[in-house]
Amino acid sequence: MNLPVAVDVAIGILFIYLMLSLLASEIQELIATVLQWRAEHLKKSIEILMTSNHFTDRMYRSPLIQSLNQTAKGGLAVLVRQLSHFIHQIYRLVTGTRNVFAPVASGPSYIPAETFAVALLQQINLVELSRRISELSFERLQHEKLALLKEILNDLRDSLGSDPLLIDVDREFDRLEQNLREVSKDFRSGRTSLSGSIQQATDQIFRFIDSTEVLLANQNPCNDIIRSRLNYLKQLISRKYAEPTVVEVLKLILEEGDYLHLSPRLVEIVDEIRDKYPELLNQVSDLPAELKRNLIVLAEQAQLRAESLEVGVRQMEKEVAIWFDNSMARASGVYKRNAKGVALIIGFLIAVTINADTLYIINRLSKDTTLRSTLSQRAERLVPSDPAATTLQADLEAVKVALDNVLNDVSLPLGWNAANVRQQGAIAPTSLSFVLHRLAGWLVTGIALSMGAAFWYDLLSKVMRVRNTGRVENGSTSHASDNSTR
């Protein structure tokens, strides 16, 4: 077999592989959709990540996760969906597998990492508990600062008696309390952060102290004592407030009442939360120990990149998203390996069903000049002249449409018709050699189809470009110019 013939044979076999691979891909995609392989694999992978089926089921009931499971709309779509669920139910009964989405019939086949992170932290109430702790911390901090101010003002009243100056001081203090209520309102509504609210409250108190010091100027010597106490109070108030960390809050959630690691201030806040919001600390009793340890490690990583509780919670979401992405990358590798095995089975079944024997096909192409030339011409029409102009997906869609016309014009060496079977028998005359020859040919075809349509289309395109590069207008093979300068 000379080189041009070998190239045409290769083009013909690649063309047939491409055509059958498209069929195999469609069958596999249909099976994967009906049996919800992707969605099931995703759910089982998350169960492994969470080390708990029960907690994963609870997460899947989250509105964020449920919103990703789009239900069919319209009469025909609903009917198809119901038929798919019925087939899936029969499959579970036959194979004895459980419905991982129970009590519903299906689940999402893809969950963005950010959505998963938010849903997980919502399930353990980290965001809500952090917000409540921040609110109570701010309220207690304000109360403590105002209590110190009130103590000094009471001493001022004792020293001034009925001095009219007290009227101005009380008026300023009332204004201060009103301003602090506005700061608290902005914080609770989410318009300001905890650190920003603390800074605003501190600025308001400083302004009150400055105005009070001005009012006390040039008064009796007792006021000097009051002013010195106000200066000391400014220094005390200006000290940076140590916010609870995301690690402390998470341990508060996960360690079930072990408060030895918490500051006294936070212990008081926790006791208040238990009284006001008991549900926030009673939602994680079913979390496995391994998952708790993983979450605490992620919180410690987040804390290294955060300067406040609010930033720590946001960073915690990012750490959980990265953790989820890394886990799903490994799960995706497992799914692809499983899909490759299924593709091999489907490819072999297709080869047997339509008698796609690679060894026989090669034999036919090497001997049948007309068939070889026809397939080569049809393949050339399928491959774009500029491969960079279109995407692979668009090319494959065009191939699917073009193949319908090709199959009407070309009689391929496929099928169980009498002519094919007779010619196959001529290649392997004995019964044993016939069977072994067929099995070998079908197996090669099955392996080839499992490679996927994209692989064969890309390979066919390369072969066609190489062959076309070697042609000249008169049809002969190109070579070095005979007209070179002598």
Task: Note down, in words, how this protein is organized.
By secondary structure, this protein is mainly α. The protein is 74% helix and 0% strand. Among the domains are: 3-27 and 337-468, no CATH class; 126-237, no CATH class. The chain contains 20 helices and no strands. The longest helix has 45 residues, at 309-353. The two termini are 36 Å apart. 26% of the residues are buried. Residues 472-486 have low confidence and may be disordered.
Features of this protein?
486 residues, mainly alpha, disordered C terminus
Class computed from helices, strands and strand pairing = mainly alpha
Proportion of residues in extended strands: under 5%
Mean of all residue-level pLDDT scores: 79
Oligomer: single chain
What's the total count of β strands?
0
